[in-house]
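User: Could you walk me through two proteins back to back? I'd like the raw sequence and the structure tokens for each, with a short line separating them so I can tell where one ends and the next begins.

Assistant: Of course. Protein one, sequence then structure:
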Amino acid sequence: MSHFTLVHGSCHGAWCWAEVIAALTRLGHSARAIDLPAHGADRTPPGEATLDRYAAAILGAIDKPTILVGHSAGGFPVTLAASLAPEKITRLIYLCAYVPALGQSIIDLRRAGPRQPLKGVVKADPGGVTYHADPAGARRTFFHDCPEDKAAAAVRLLGPEPIAPQATPLPPGLETPPHPRHYILCEDDRTIPPEYQADMARPFGRAVTRLPSGHSPFLTAPARLARLLDLLATEAPSLVP
């Protein structure tokens, strides 16, 4: 069976993957989620968080070949980690995630989207080091299809997001690691427009699966997401360009 390393997106932490880890374990896999620096239980000061430190944290958590899964903004650090240490990664899975492009940061990509559902939802904090998600806006965008109890708990767990890593493009030449890649497109996503996900996933060719979910399938459909990850763990490399 396979080992998965699960990487969260903006304002989240390892906590968001708990039900997926349990479901993957029931399917016979092993899985671990990490807190990126300055997220969750990690005590790195937000001003010291960088994209390089994110990648280093991911690689430091890997002790055996792994399938690396990145959600949303997690698409950037998983790509960098895989490019820096390709021998540690067996394949990459992007879950409604930003796909790095030459010379563009996450902020650049978000601004280039066809719609801006996060306008007014994410707001810079005093000092400009972090931003936060407005609770009502997060409920509307991140968790609109979640049961009320799960959405309320998730909103309480959201933390400030360091801005500098999201303003940093990947170093040139590291945008496309040499691994099989797959994109999971969330069709009812109200954070990253589904049509924009399709555009970012175009280089993946046939290696795209559509999931009838909002932005947080790890909360709304953890068992279904785990079954999909299980299938992708043995996906024929020929499906990946």
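----
Protein two, same layout:
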Amino acid sequence: MDYLPLFAALKNRPVLVVGGGEVAARKIALLTRAGAQVRVVARALHPELAALAEAKAIDWFAQAFDEAQLDTVFLVIAATNDSELNRRVFDAANARQRLVNVVDDQPLCSFIFPSIVDRSPLVVAISSGGNAPVLARLLREKIEALLPANLGRMAEVAGSWREKIKARLTTTDARRRFWERAFRGRFASQMAAGNEQAAQETLAQTLAEPESEQGEIILVGAGPGDAGLLTLRGLQVMQQADVVLYDHLVSDGVLDLVRRDAERICVGKRAGSHAVAQHETNQMLIDFAREGKTVVRLKGGDPFIFGRGGEELQAAKAAGVPFQVVPGVTAASGATAYAGIPLTHRDYAQSAVFVTGHYKPDSAPFDWTLLAKSRQTLAIYMGTMKAAEISEQLIQHGRDADTPVAVISRGTREDQQVFTGTLQQLDALAKQAPMPALLVIGEVVTLHPQLAWYQQSNPAEEFRSSVVNLA
């Protein structure tokens, strides 16, 4: 280890920065955030620094460097384009046992600036010892994505409870278990949701009954398939899960992001068969939460768009189990975007309608007259098995038989396929498409050849349309 990681308290301490350009400005921004008294030596100041000097936020100490300027400062930074001057600053600082950093010159550094993830008072620093700063930055970006923005406030709230916890729980092990449960459980979720009062009440209740267990259910939309479309909040929640109940539509790439030691249970449903009945899934969610576990219910797309998420949370509400929802990218927006088919366009469609082809037998029939209107886009979920009926009814109720259609199979995934044709060919197109598939009906499909960007489409030659150019 070439550098010992340290966190320096710079508040109200003098720091000398030699240089007044853009590079110096970046370092000074960090120093002022830490509360340092910044003294600048430079012939001229970058406009950003000039504004700070005018506002008395920094002290434009001198225009020329003098070694005596080092006598009363805590640490030193040289950020000029003059290598001789930088060497003079380094040598003089070393002679006075001052920590010094010459920017972008690692051999002339007795301390270095790490890449920082700032969730004050929680701060994470990553360094490669000056060998690979770009790698350190990339690692910082990955860590940044995993750490919720509310962590700083959560740490402050936890700090305000430390003395109470010590008075109530007298052993280190008991306190450690308490905080592990708090940071993985309901307290953390309530803080993330911005409900600080409820989070404080949860800490008080847990402290009063340290052996009590209170879990929760978190409904998470996993998106249409591409793991890159999972939301940042969804990723963070999945890393906290004790148990995950997931659907068949959740891709392997998304499942790979689940916390490694979480229990995983597939409760998915496929067309024509049910792995687990819905009421059984509801009860499992409730039972796990009552055991004090953080239960993530992971659903393809968005849980509130044809995902039965509302039904599951109604059951949780009736059972008195707390819950929250993390929305996801629904298939209609994700799959069409990856296929280069905008759902709306000023020249083709002024509205988009989301419809499910799978509904309860006792449900009211579709308003086919409304769905058959022109200049709107229909995005039909779970509609491949009823594609013939959909085509027939739309044509009967006034939609042109030559209306462009697309069947997007396994949208956003590596094996995505897009079959295009006309409304009268919808059934035959749907029969070719591997599941899951989304039906898209409307003039916007004509834009697919122009806007397809994700991969080459897979048009069926026998279904070439007079409207859609598939050449």
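Residues 457-471 have pLDDT under 50 and may be disordered.

Let me know if you want the two compared in more detail.
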